[in-house]
Amino acid sequence: MALLTALLPLSTLPLVARAAPTAARVFSRQSANTTTRSNSTSATVYDPNDSPVTPFKLPLGSADTHVHLFNPQFPYAANRSYTPSNATLDQLREFTTQYSADGNPIQVVLVQPSPYGKDNSALLDGLKRIKKQNWGIPRGIAVIDPAKVTDKELHDLHVAGVRGVRVNTESAATSTSSEENTALIKAAVDRIKHMEGWAVQVYVAPSIWRDSYDYFANLTTPIIADHYGGLKAVSTLTNNTSPSADSYDQALNQTGLAELVELATSGSVYIKLSGVYRASTFDSGYWADVAPLTSHLAKSVPGRLIYASDWPHTGAGKDRAGRPLSVIEQFRVVDQGKVLQSQYDAVNSTSVWKRIMVSNPRKLYRFH
Ligand SMILES: *[C@@H]1O[C@H](CO)[C@@H](O)[C@H](O)[C@H]1NC(C)=O
Ligand SMILES: *[C@@H]1O[C@H](CO)[C@@H](O)[C@H](O)[C@H]1NC(C)=O
Ligand SMILES: *[C@@H]1O[C@H](CO)[C@@H](O)[C@H](O)[C@H]1NC(C)=O
Ligand SMILES: *[C@@H]1O[C@H](CO)[C@@H](O)[C@H](O)[C@H]1NC(C)=O
Ligand SMILES: *[C@@H]1O[C@H](CO)[C@@H](O)[C@H](O)[C@H]1NC(C)=O
Ligand SMILES: *[C@@H]1O[C@H](CO)[C@@H](O)[C@H](O)[C@H]1NC(C)=O
Ligand SMILES: *[C@@H]1O[C@H](CO)[C@@H](O)[C@H](O)[C@H]1NC(C)=O
Ligand SMILES: *[C@@H]1O[C@H](CO)[C@@H](O)[C@H](O)[C@H]1NC(C)=O
User: Fold this and answer.
1) Which of 116-130, 169-183, 255-269, 341-355 bottoms out in mean pLDDT, i.e. has the lowest?
2) pLDDT at 15 over 70
3) Which atom of ligand 4 is nearest to the CA of 78?
4) Which atom of ligand 5 has the smallest separation from the CA of 217?
5) Which of 110, 195, 242, 285 falls 20 to 30 Å from 131 in CA-CA distance?
6) pTM for the complete prediction?
7) Which residues, 6 or more positions from 241, have their beta carbon under 8 angstroms from its beta carbon?
8) Any atom of ligand 5 within 6 Å of the Cβ of 350
9) Per-residue confidence band for 137, with pLDDT thresholds at 50, 70 and 90
10) Domains along the chain with CATH numbers
11) What mean pLDDT do residues 300-324 have?
12) Ligand 7 surroundings by CB, under 6 angstroms
């Protein structure tokens, strides 16, 4: 966190849940010390599980549909927008096991992170090892160049467990228009729409749901709208790190939300409840101002929601401008137990919670 401290004013730090440890909180590792992370490339001890963990158990059969591996044995793209710290498969296994009801690691979907560009080698290596460990069904979302990828490459990705491709323009330091985003999504859809069980996963600015509504309304290829479809909580919308509770509902008026809900109701869109810290700057591990979004979506489109931790909780595109690639971006400190508790409370229905955690992802990713 030293890097964020160095670059940002203190008032923007609530990106990070860093409340003082309490008796109710346990640490995943005895060595956890969130105050001593270094931003230098010589940092040697960093464990992405060094976050406080409030106990929380997911229903049996749950899926965490968006996690990343950062394995420096596989080189990062030269033109990446940041250099991540390490996040290994063993660490991921340990992380997901903390939330499992039966002591086994829960089903995951590995998502190709932006620093690897279109080289899916680290992802494929992870899927291979997941298969070897008999850890659920290997599933992944890759990144391709639609103009260059061959049929053979798509086939090989499928055999490895890949069930979709990703379009992500929100990890970059600069913003991208709805028109540009739609062109990227269209190219991806056109290239993979014949692939059995494949989706196009998108992390783009939410105005796209309004601006390209007609395009999405006619699609049959599933679209996975990452991180609450790019929607924002009131703290981000108003640039106020401590909004009052009676203002939280204002998030329900934002551009794109109504169209996104409509597209999930009658179209092929799924919405991923993940990355609350990408929606909110609220200074609380509980992320209270995201609740109206979670609750509204749970009531409106309970059959089209899926969950993800977004582990190991990478930083934000807008903080990457001007940072040299020699500086390692540390992961955020996120108490995922608290995030889950806040989402569970906002969903306010155990049957809808089970759909989000178990049956919806099972159907979408075909975990069988
Ligand atoms: C974390 O490290 C800082 C600086 O070395 C130290 O002052 C603090 O006591 C440590 N906290 C814990 C919980 O170990
Ligand atoms: C982090 O980076 C900043 C700017 O490069 C530097 O001033 C600071 O000393 C670094 N902190 C650590 C703990 O390395
Ligand atoms: C990341 O992994 C590389 C290669 O295994 C290792 O050299 C490096 O020290 C690790 N970095 C951290 C911060 O753990
Ligand atoms: C990085 O370069 C590749 C081609 O080598 C290009 O397809 C990609 O768009 C570039 N990415 C960024 C973030 O500039
Ligand atoms: C979507 O389908 C409707 C009805 O079939 C059609 O009128 C409309 O032109 C289509 N829109 C696009 C963008 O293809
Ligand atoms: C948000 O607030 C911070 C601190 O008050 C200010 O520096 C920043 O420019 C604001 N950003 C926007 C987008 O208004
Ligand atoms: C949404 O906007 C309308 C019209 O601008 C306003 O009347 C209403 O109070 C707003 N609702 C919320 C929840 O902010
Ligand atoms: C949760 O649902 C119950 C009904 O099952 C309702 O009485 C209660 O008001 C709801 N709580 C919230 C915070 O919406």
Assistant:
1) 169-183
2) no
3) 1
4) 1
5) 195
6) 0.83
7) 11, 12, 14, 235, 281, 282, 283
8) no
9) very high
10) 2-19+60-365 (3.20.20.140)
11) 91
12) 249-250, 252-253
